[in-house]
Amino acid sequence: MRYTHLLLAAGISLPALSASAQTVQMTVQPGDPKLIVSKHIQGQFAEHLGRNIYGGFWVDKDLNVPKKGRIRMDIVEALQKIHVPNLRWPGGCFADTYHWHDGVGPTAQRPKMLNLWWGNTLEDNSFGTHEFLELCDMLGTEPYLAANVGSGTVEEMSNWMEYLNSNEDTPMVQERKKNGHAEPYKVSWWGIGNESWGCGGNMTPDYYTDVYKRYATFAHDYPGTQLKKIVSGANGDDANWTEVCMKKIPRNMMWGLTLHYYTLPTGSWSGSKGAATGFDEQQYFNTLRNGLKMDDIVTRHAAIMDKYDKEKRVALLVDEWGIWTDVEPGTNPGFLYQQNTLRDALLAGTTLNIFNNHCDRVRGANLAQAVNVLQALVLTDKEKMLLTPTYHVFDLYQVHQDAQYMPLEFKSPDYVMGNEKIPALNASASKDKNGAVHISLVNLDTKKTINLETALPGVSWKNVSGRILTSNSVSDYNTFEKPNNLKLAEFKGAKKKGGNLAVALPPKSVVVLELK
Ligand code: AHR
């Protein structure tokens, strides 16, 4: 563990702080100029699940909203503003049931399919590979495809790659051209299976690594596109899965290895996971305590990867994360539709800080999920659309994309609830290509302000500005009637004091500062 706040996040106690507990001394270190916070940490996830694709991104032609074809443009415009770096599709569990060839060619001739994982809905395959890649093009985002390993074949996956990436005169390429795309799409990000320990086939890690190697052998690079082959990784803290994958799969066969961890308010998959709204402070505390485990989980998997890959060539991608609550009362339980509060925004800021602080290994992550599912960025109700508090956090944090990492040193005060405590403060910092320094700060305490006195050795700066997300209660959220209940505001609590930065960080807030 490199930094004090990480020690605290991992539940390791530090000596009790004095009465002036809410004053924190922080140092922003210059860091290693070569260590970059990958923009891909801010990736998103669009599974065929509930109203994420059908009724989300892809709407009925009669719906009275701005559209390009059937792609909903108010969502596209909102996501363009936060510069989504990559978009994972078509799943999730759905990916291991998806047959891509059913989703290309004239729409009327595409066969229908049952979405067996999510609500047994009948999908008409009108949203397929070309539509997804058109969406990515509009968003200016890197497509991240998940190949069907669980119920597909090696041939099916390798045909998909040839269809998308080759430019030779083969039947696959001829078909792509006939379907309207003359040039290769050059899709380089490929997940080989999803949750292969569970919905992707209930495999053991030994069995999966053999299957992976077989699939990866037939995942060809076509001229102009070098594939990033991604191993389906562990469930939460399953260290053995990572150990076996790292031991058995040669480095040149894997660009990345994934990890999935969801934050459940109750911490349990059986029974209630906890409500999305209307929770009390104890439930809020428990949620953040469970969310902070991400730091420990990433640390453990990264340490195993270090054992086999000292040069850190293999990326760790947390390609599913976020809060998973009970669904909104009255909605289809298979659709995973949940509201999104300030609590979720604080969790998002905290998690992105954890990833930033592990940027030497974590080089990608995908929030689950983009629209109308789990910790969504966007919720829709027919023509209506709202941006969630979580969306605003991604808006704030985009300044870290591909910026140089700057390590922080500080001791967080405790946020105490009954007999338990968690660190109240978490943070990360980076320097962008123009030399501006950005510090993202999260105060999880619901009542106490944190006063920061921050030194920035080696940084020359004149002005500080910032934006904040907060609200009266951690259970506040945006509704279709009041979509701007929670929105970003200018932050005036930071100033230059001598050569240092003084910040009064309000309770239950996410703040991002810019120094230049
Ligand atoms: O994000 C919802 C589901 O959670 C995904 O389909 C699956 O990969 C995970 O279990």
UniProtKB/TrEMBL annotation:
Gene3D superfamilies per UniProt: Glycosidases, Golgi alpha-mannosidase II
Record's catalysed reaction(s): Hydrolysis of terminal non-reducing alpha-L-arabinofuranoside residues in alpha-L-arabinosides
One Pfam family recorded for the sequence: Alpha-L-AF_C
Residues that span the membrane, as ranges: none
E.C. designation(s): 3.2.1.55
Cleavable signal peptide: 1-21
Domain Alpha-L-arabinofuranosidase C-terminal: 319-509
Subunit structure: Homohexamer; trimer of dimers.
Annotated family: Belongs to the glycosyl hydrolase 51 family.
Protein name as catalogued: non-reducing end alpha-L-arabinofuranosidase
